[in-house]
Amino acid sequence: MEQAILLIQCPDQKGIIAKFSNFVFEREANIISSYQHSTDPDGGRFFMRMKFVFDNERYPEASLESDIEELASTLDAVWQIHYESKVMRMAIAVSRFDHCLADLLYRVRSGELRVEVPLVVSNHEDARELVEGHGIAFHYLPVSKETKPEQEKRFFELIRDSSDFLVLARYMQVLSEDFLTGYGKDIINIHHSFLPSFMGANPYRQAYDRGVKIIGATAHFATSTLDQGPIIDQEVGRVTHKDKVESLKAKGRDLEKLALANAIRMYLEHRVIRYENKTIILG
Amino acid sequence: MEQAILLIQCPDQKGIIAKFSNFVFEREANIISSYQHSTDPDGGRFFMRMKFVFDNERYPEASLESDIEELASTLDAVWQIHYESKVMRMAIAVSRFDHCLADLLYRVRSGELRVEVPLVVSNHEDARELVEGHGIAFHYLPVSKETKPEQEKRFFELIRDSSDFLVLARYMQVLSEDFLTGYGKDIINIHHSFLPSFMGANPYRQAYDRGVKIIGATAHFATSTLDQGPIIDQEVGRVTHKDKVESLKAKGRDLEKLALANAIRMYLEHRVIRYENKTIILG
Amino acid sequence: MEQAILLIQCPDQKGIIAKFSNFVFEREANIISSYQHSTDPDGGRFFMRMKFVFDNERYPEASLESDIEELASTLDAVWQIHYESKVMRMAIAVSRFDHCLADLLYRVRSGELRVEVPLVVSNHEDARELVEGHGIAFHYLPVSKETKPEQEKRFFELIRDSSDFLVLARYMQVLSEDFLTGYGKDIINIHHSFLPSFMGANPYRQAYDRGVKIIGATAHFATSTLDQGPIIDQEVGRVTHKDKVESLKAKGRDLEKLALANAIRMYLEHRVIRYENKTIILG
Amino acid sequence: MEQAILLIQCPDQKGIIAKFSNFVFEREANIISSYQHSTDPDGGRFFMRMKFVFDNERYPEASLESDIEELASTLDAVWQIHYESKVMRMAIAVSRFDHCLADLLYRVRSGELRVEVPLVVSNHEDARELVEGHGIAFHYLPVSKETKPEQEKRFFELIRDSSDFLVLARYMQVLSEDFLTGYGKDIINIHHSFLPSFMGANPYRQAYDRGVKIIGATAHFATSTLDQGPIIDQEVGRVTHKDKVESLKAKGRDLEKLALANAIRMYLEHRVIRYENKTIILG
User: Fold this and answer.
1) Do D142 and D205 fall into the same domain?
2) Do B150 and B125 sit in the same domain of this protein?
3) Are residues C122 and C140 in contact, defined by beta-carbon separation less than 8 angstroms?
4) CB B196 to CB D211 under 8 A?
5) C235 and C149 together in one domain
6) Check: complex ipTM more than 0.90
7) What is the pLDDT of residues C123-163, one digit of tens each?
8) CATH code of the domain covering residue A79
9) Judged by CB atoms within 8 Å, which residues 162-201 of B form the interface with D?
10) Residue B51's domain spans which residues?
11) Cα atoms found within 13 Å of the Cα of residue A260, Cβ hemisphere only
């Protein structure tokens, strides 16, 4: 037996749920959960996440997938399938501040996040002990204005084949469009503000200067436009006039850890769908 | 054309979604949204809320319903159907504190809550002006220990046929089991604490005495066991050592209004399902 | 006996608290509460709010104030004093959406907000019944591009002497710098976003387009730079991909009411101090 | 120069702030911050936290303290003083679940919490590697019904002189009244529910069974009455009908970490005052 998560999107039309639930029913599979979303039932876009258990001896993955493709093509649908038995591989990049990294590694080790971490890349040496203490390969790739293209190339080669997605856990370097395009897989970034407020550098300083009463953190997909990719999760917390930049940073660290961990948890459950610079969280 | 919301629950089994989505598809209805929940895909209970638009000239409500019954019986399913064109009727009871009542009446008048309010019952005169100012009938039913059975009888007669459900918007009288059973429809109560903390009388005083740092309010279905019915919504807010009982009450009023309004909104959308002294909120 | 709230600000220096608490002690007054804030104890700015009860027969207000002035001048301090017996007067302006207005009027009538409302000004007729139902004068001042200067002039004349501060409870007209300067008193605005995100028009549409996972509302002092005045309170709430612009507006209304009511409550308690485009909330 | 935090409590009376701020002023000390709280200005209890910098060469600690004692005795005041240069020592006890422990150790190592951790005690071996990896002594003290008194004795001897306070970071053993009394110093516990809801064992199971829509965690002082000591901080988070006991636990872990870390941070800043089974958080 195998458990699968099927993600589908297509133009909204009558009968989609019926067709896919029939498809699954005919293969004697048991639906564990099923979520749908329509941007607009009259001619919008339809999204579905269906989790089911099937007998992969009678219906091997390859034949299941070719059958799905056949059905999907009749609906003009794009689809992906993920199998429970296959564990995702998450590469992580970090600079100096390692609170998100330490938080993620703890969640991985304790089994809360079911994911492999093949390696951590950093432009600083600071996190080496933490990473190697978890038995994970640490790659120190210092960067300067001059060496940036070369450094990115090495970074890229390290993660290209070894990872299914990349997490920027407070990696303070902007990645080039070539890197993003070349990698082709999802990149999740944590930005230390409530986007779209305070994009760019020093968001806690910006928040302090503006005198906001609530700060936030935003986990989002990195795209070629800095801090403007689809938002996955946001967390917020109250602050007061007593907070200086340093205490905003301290309070913010807890929000960053939470937003990033939530985003990755949902991502690993294949609940996060990107659509038109937004995310749909199914379930 | 008519819009319907179909609520189903039955023992979990393969093919339920397929059967109902086929049912709808075969009648050329368009599913607007569909939510499911299984308490346990291996032999638990299955719940579904399906919203669809159908042509009630070709498929009149009566025939639709008899077809549903036929399908449901094969699945051992319990079901309800609600039609968009039929507006629910909400009776309200209140005692002295009218903040929840005023909040609800504003939301009804502004169109935020789509519901009729046929009458308001109170054991005090205080809210008469507010209620009648909204053009709603106000019934003053004073109560004492001696007159309680008689008062409840009049209360019951007023709401029995005129309402589809009853909201206790800070009605500070315990309703007898006879009343609850006789009425037979849903009763939503707002309790001014974060249940199960501080059941019974004077919850803000209890919260003050315990020194909690967060207070709450709970909207729940009233049952014969005081403050122990299924919880629909809870809202919370921070307090400090500076708060006295009076300021807890003031802060709590905003939580009460919010929890009750949210619960009613979800109830009117037929998203709230009672099951084993809990609620399932579909969607 | 009279209760007073004394607000002081001055360059930070040793002995300020000692001098003022001695001052009060020598006049046999009883300090009810006292809050201080220093932007930086080494040469920053010092703020204090001191609430005390004094015998105004022995120490009449006028002599108390001239004594304060004498002390304050030795510390280069700016100060204000407010007496419990004097109730503030709050003018309100509103356009079409009256949820904040209705919320405020309920809070005033129920005694939660201790303030007089001499009048409500609107560029629409919609709120007349609500306002007059509370026995408050309603002034309809329609505005067009051409009549704006004339309309503002009438608005100004209505509130200049009759109010101590002005609340813009979803008044959708930008006030001219002349108006702001001429009025000279505080103006509190509610902006329907989590500033500085989504300044300007249609913030819920902006929030929808950006795909944020949390929306907010901001109560702030109006200044000549739109939506950039000192923030008093912010409230936030979660939203999902299921929310359309309309449901963001509905959820946002509750945040707006709360943020504005909280800001006004603190303002009426004289806890809100403006400093360098921020607010300090004492206590 | 030294920085001190002076904590005072006494019957409320006129002139307390004046006397203490004079006291400090006369010693040429600079007040950094000062917070007061009165349970009731008419004959209640008064609390003050005053942070100041003084020249400890001219006014050595011993003479400062004897002067404070002299003043305090005239006001019937109880007081404590803490010096910035002295770092507190926090013993930690843990059982199997080490998420709070790992979180605390990270915060200590990163400098966010300024505290020494002399040792960690556990009735299980699980956390040894984590603790020793931070260079901290780990004491394994297994416990059974029979060995409990003996185990507590060893526990007690380990922490009695080596620690200033004890943190129960998910230590699942009830400490005897003898232990509590013998230790005499503060013990901070994290309870994995929103107290007073769900006291005792398996609170997440209790929360699941009750069907609450919000769960919480509570950091409080341990007293001889289980889960009923003064509350320091509470954190809450939303859950839904989709959450099983396991996911409540996962969500709860983040609340527990946050509540405990916040409580310890405030405790280390000497902001937390115990009074009548409640806490007053000054500042």
Assistant:
1) yes
2) yes
3) yes
4) no
5) yes
6) yes
7) 999 999 999 999 999 999 999 999 999 999 999 999 999 99
8) 3.30.70.260
9) 194-198
10) 2-83
11) 30
